[in-house]
């Protein structure tokens, strides 16, 4: 086997950056593949005719970019998720002929009547308010509606605690850019939301993957990671973990909150799918309010295109978060927030939520029926499930085989962080296909794929 | 004079960070003031009982955060703009009783009729489209409208070149976060848009201030800065520079474009006020299309609250920019963009623009009349002007004195970058006060303040 040698001569700028750049390019090009071991610092230095310290710096730079992961005594490896962040999102959901079981569409055909919403706003006394610059935290009425919405998630709060954002992804942007600095470490589940991975990578925030069990993040593992490294914050989805659908018990939530206290962590809790199932356990944030930022989104439960989410933030974090809203978008567009606030206040939002849960329940029943004999986890009203794959399948192989049969699914590799080994599993969206016959057809094809006896 | 000694013992984490943290806190608290010289590395090390290298690292960290600026042979100083970024934005424009001549409000009482806009969208066949996830680059019709809008700025382009953003500030976020990395250097005018300073500071992007003359950024100074340091991109406002209202000549634009080529710079051109005056000179971007990202905003000329702007981007930069849209907000809310696209396509937008120019011209005439005898620069249809202050005024002193008389203005200090010395000047918004009598009254008070013979 020939040793990997990057072509650094073509690059500009300092050598260590050129080395990181060419590693990045080779990963993008597929010359270097996830899990591959890189030459030792000394071998690489000899091959390139440079100092060992330059290679060390270059590898460290590549590690910062999420490309490599090193384990003391084992060597340096291409990170398992090095290629997935850029490839993770299809810009064109619903590619012609494909049945979408990868992206989780929030059953948007059940969304509220937007034409009716417009007509109501048009009748207002002074709708021009919505075309002006406003407080980046949001208009008073909108923050009031945000407090009502947060209550559905089990958080009692007042409007002064609310900061209006342009959707949950934007809320995460404000948390990561406003509360952390480039180079800071954020603890996450070892399988986590790809949109967070991609955002953190862009902002230079380092992710520390924490081992999970059937309840999600393991407190002992979080504790150990905090002792090993300086960790600033922890990202949590305790209600419905994406992608595994795990739910944290009350004692586990208490313990995570206690550890956040012990290690002085900011809690970022973004339980996007928590409202999709009925029955609330209070959020981890409620157990450590002064250090927790809670993302109360509504894309999954009310309407994704509005791009509205509410942050519930403690006094000490409100100023940097409001500044981050200002820095990134000045303010969430008040028009959209007005629509959301109207629907939240008049009860439309809860009706829509109920309708979506009922439709999700119907789809989940179909999945249970069709996928008989396969192992999967999900909520009875869930928008997705986590499918364990029989040997010798890997998530990536299953994803490729499904795609060849006209079905889009997401292998576990899209969710793994750093050098976590990807389990043989895939996330199955139950709501991606609008048409119920397509949906059923997709499930059947996947069932055949996994159960055929060749 | 006693030597400045920070209290670093209270901090957690590595010592160098603790040092930077306490410098930051002392600047916020006013214990350290802009321009103040810090102890030498050795003196500080002795005072704290730590290694010189720890102090060097701490100072460097503080410099990265935009707090300090060092000049070889002269020492280390608190940056002129160290305190302004967090204080720069009033969250509550129009504080009771204050006449607003600081913030530039885009004459929003001339904005289009939003109620009528809503009614038209409500009559569409399928307005629910606007509640769904879409391509982060924007819907096809919206990108088409973006191309029309960019044409008003003097850029001929097709819809495939357009990426829809949630306002110009968001477009800048996508440029800085998507095209640069933390630690990268961005060349800017030595006086620049505060929203860019604040964003760059949050993202860990370092600003390299470039000396200006009456035409804006000086090519020789840009060239020298690129030779001295590795600079990745340059931020430009060639039509109406904020805050000085300077305009770049054609030859100067050619020369800056040529230098961008020589030094392999990405051009980020965000000429927010360029449409407020009639008569176009083609953008610098048009002279180097393959390396230029042009921000075609509409907050100043059409409606700020919509939060819509269009990026015109070359092929090589479109993917990272679209990914940055996705990472930060998933997509600009299609509803708002639909309103903007409708107004752009049916000609409403150009009518509004004309009406705003006419009102700005009227206000500018009033300013010329009232401020007789004072030196100021502005466009005949401009939304703001740049007022030179007679000795011994400084911008900050004038800002404070004006505020004491119930008028909000912005001293030059809000715009300076790094260790640039702030000129004795202030930016005067001509559109902040809605009421024309308030506006005239504000101008009179400022005139008296600057011309009184005590």
Description:
Chain A has about 450 residues and is α/β, with parallel strands linked by helices. Chain A has 3 domains: about 15-80, Winged helix-like DNA-binding domain superfamily/Winged helix DNA-binding domain (Arc Repressor Mutant, subunit A, Orthogonal Bundle); about 85-110 and about 350-450, Aspartate Aminotransferase, domain 1 (Alpha-Beta Complex); about 130-345, 3-Layer(aba) Sandwich (Aspartate Aminotransferase, domain 2). Chain A has helices at about 15-30, 40-50, 50-65, 85, 115-120, 140-150, 170-180, 195-205, 220-230, 250-260, 315-330, 335-345, 350-370, 395-405, 435-450; strands spanning about 70, 75-80, 100, 160-165, 185-190, 205-210, 210-215, 215, 235, 265-270, 290-295, 310, 375-380, 385-390, 405-410, 410, 425-430. The first copy, chain A, has a 7-stranded mixed beta sheet with strand order 4-12-11-10-9-5-6, with helices on both faces. A 4-stranded antiparallel beta sheet of chain A has the order 13-14-17-16. Chain A has a two-stranded antiparallel sheet with strand order 1-2. Chain A is globular.
């Amino acid at each position: 086997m020939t040793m990997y040698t990057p072509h650094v001569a073509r690059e500009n700028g300092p050598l260590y950056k050129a080395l990181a750049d060419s590693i990045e390019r080779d990963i993008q090009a597929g010359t270097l593949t996830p899990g591959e071991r890189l030459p030792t610092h000394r071998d690489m230095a000899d091959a390139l005719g440079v100092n060992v310290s330059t290679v060390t710096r270059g590898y460290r730079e590549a590690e910062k970019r999420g490309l490599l992961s090193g384990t003391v005594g084992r060597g340096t490896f291409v990170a398992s998720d090095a290629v997935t962040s850029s490839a993770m999102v299809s810009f064109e959901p619903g590619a012609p002929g494909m049945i979408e079981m990868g992206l989780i569409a929030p059953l948007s055909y059940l969304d509220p009547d937007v034409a009716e919403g417009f007509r109501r706003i048009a009748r207002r006394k002074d709708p021009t308010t919505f075309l002006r610059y406003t407080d980046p935290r949001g208009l008073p009425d909108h923050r009031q509606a945000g407090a009502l919405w947060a209550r559905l998630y089990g958080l009692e709060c007042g409007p002064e605690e609310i900061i209006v954002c342009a959707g949950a992804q934007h809320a995460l942007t404000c948390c990561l850019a406003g509360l952390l600095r480039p180079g800071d470490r954020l603890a996450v589940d070892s399988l986590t939301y790809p949109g967070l991975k991609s955002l953190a990578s862009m902002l230079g925030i380092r992710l520390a993957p924490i081992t999970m069990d059937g309840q999600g993040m393991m407190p002992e593992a979080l504790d150990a990671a905090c002792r090993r490294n300086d960790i600033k914050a922890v990202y949590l989805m305790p209600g419905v973990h994406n992608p595994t659908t795990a739910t944290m018990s009350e004692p586990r939530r208490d313990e995570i909150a206690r550890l956040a206290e012990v290690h002085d962590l900011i809690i970022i809790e973004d339980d996007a799918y928590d409202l999709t199932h009925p029955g609330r356990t209070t959020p981890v944030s409620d157990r450590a309010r002064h250090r927790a930022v809670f993302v109360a989104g509504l894309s999954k439960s009310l309407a994704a295109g509005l791009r509205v989410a509410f942050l519930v933030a403690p006094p000490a974090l409100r100023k940097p978060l409001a500044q981050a809203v200002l820095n990134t978008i000045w303010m969430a567009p008040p028009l959209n927030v007005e629509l959301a606030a109207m629907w939240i206040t008049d009860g439309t939002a809860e009706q829509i939520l109920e309708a979506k849960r009922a439709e999700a329940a119907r789809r989940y029943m179909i999945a249970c029926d069709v996928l008989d004999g396969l192992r999967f986890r999900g909520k009875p009203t869930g928008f997705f499930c986590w499918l364990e794959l029989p040997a010798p399948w890997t998530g990536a192989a299953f994803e490729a085989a499904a795609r060849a049969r006209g079905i889009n699914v997401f292998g576990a590799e899209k969710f793994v962080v750093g050098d976590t080994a990807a389990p043989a599993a895939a996330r199955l969206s139950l709501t991606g296909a609008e048409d119920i016959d397509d949906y059923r057809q997709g499930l059947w094809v996947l069932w055949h794929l996994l159960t055929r006896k060749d």
